[in-house]
Amino acid sequence: MKTKYLLFGGLVAASSLLSACSDFFDQDSDHVIFADDYELNQSSDTIYSLTGIMSKMQALGDRTVLLGEVRGDLVDVTNSANADLRELAQFDVSDGNRYNSPKDYYAVINNCNLYLSKADTAVRNSANKSLFIKEYAAVKAYRAWTYLQLALNYGKVPFYTKPITTKEQAEAKYPEKDIVDLCNTLVADIAPLADVEIPGLGNIGITDSRMLYFPIYVLLGDLNLWAGNYKEAAMAYYKYITTANGSNSYFPITSRSVMWTGPEWVSIGDNWSNMFNSEIFTTDREIITMIAGDSIPSEGNYSQLRNIYNSSADNDYKVSLVPSESLKELSQRQVWCYLANNGRDTVYAPSNLTRNRAGDLRLVSCWRSYQSVYEGNTVTRQFVSKFLTRNIHVYRRATVYLRLAEALNRAGYPHFAYEILSEGVNNKVTERDVLPYCKTPADSAFVKSFNFPYSSNSGYIVLDAGAEHSYNTIGLHSRGCGLSQYNKYYLMPDDSTLSEKERLDYQIRKVEDMIVDEGALEFAFEGVRYYDLLRVALRRNDPSYLADRIYARRGAERISEVKSEIKADLTDRANWFLSWNGKLGVK
Prior knowledge:
Elements: E1 11-13, H1 14-17, E2 32-34, H2 43-57, H3 61-69, E3 75-77, H4 83-89, H5 102-118, H6 133-154, E4 156-158, H7 167-171, E5 176-178, H8 179-190, E6 203-204, E7 207-208, H9 216-227, H10 230-243, E8 258-260, E9 268-270, E10 287-291, H11 305-309, E11 321-323, H12 325-333, E12 337-340, E13 345-348, H13 362-366, E14 367-374, E15 377-384, E16 392-396, H14 397-410, H15 414-422, H16 427-433, H17 441-448, H18 478-481, H19 500-523, H20 529-540, H21 543-551, H22 559-565
Antiparallel strand pairs: 1-2, 3-11, 4-5, 6-7, 8-9, 10-16, 12-13, 14-15
């Protein structure tokens, strides 16, 4: 997908119109706007405009991953990393840093505003349905996701919904919204469109366009999660799950995992890591949403993530990012187990296995590091299976389930959240392990509103050690740690000595810690870690929750070393966000 707009009809290039505007809404020469008297009322018009917005999204692809990963505690920069990546890791991001460019987000937002202001949703087809409602909803979703990224990275951002087409408009002062205010505003904006189907544009190049949209129910889940509307967030994620493949469809977590295949602890069976290469829209897809990347480096929006994470001749086998000691230690602390003797015995993997094979197996599954000879020198090669295609993955199935668990936990249902981590959920599991802990009829009614039907061959089927049927639902922790529901080291946190309220608060905090750890194990390298730490630190009003983990990215014994390299005091929340470029005219 080239980063150019397809011009048509009454469209005019914006560069001449906005040439004198401030850098706040600086537009590239390929940005187009509509003439004042032009309306979108032809099918071809909406298709061209929609793909144009998709092309603008490409500029946000790499930074979406890197801003969320390099500032966290799961990766470390190497001596080969460029100055921009090093600035991110050190929280010393300059105005000229390539990943610090608010105007790229506003280029997307302004294009969305232009589209939404000109799309004629009153046009009807022969079935009396709005001809452009699908595209209209998709564009609102693009705008909502882009605004959310801005707020998460900059803390408080100017908000506008009308297109900027004049110098005066560009230089005007717009109201600023913080994360919570922005999220609540966006929820109200997109919620009425949640059930609108995605557009059917077919393939764009070799990419199925259905992979390039942001499902509104997932966005509603994220927006409500950040805003602290936890029941609403949980219900939104659940509604996505039940409609992902059509009305009242099934979308189980699947049984994909990394398993030891024998008692000798030598051979590993893996059907988890290969799902990152599958970018096909199927009913059992793991990838939900991508940002398309160019296939040719010279096109301008060619993703560099493969070059940053994987060794190749293009980078002289010198990668920029490697797993941190903190990630390795977290992975090794996990306990892997399976059932033996027809389910009568639980067997645990040894904790002293070498080559990063102790504990959770997802790290060793998706990351390889080995030495070889290149041009007469011994080099360390790295391979990360999560970055083998040209596209940037934003949402996947595990994202929805883990954030559903986070929302349910904070809504006051830690047992429900724990089951998503441990065994997986269906109606049998919730009846047995969740409903008994509901204290009020309202709590019971809320839990029962989550319908995960099952039978021996349909619906959400969890592993039953005594049954001989297949299963498609496991706990997220079981993706890397064996059969977690049988693991005595992975239990629902509890302290029966506490009062009822204190006990619930204790469980919520401890399960939340488990969810944050699970996010690290499942999504390492993918760009969600910093935001997970940020969200919990803000929720708990506890700066140390974020700061302590980032300072320990190289292990407890090197905390002082990391502190000396990081240029900001991370116990001060003002330093958690990027600074605006001075040219934007925004404080």
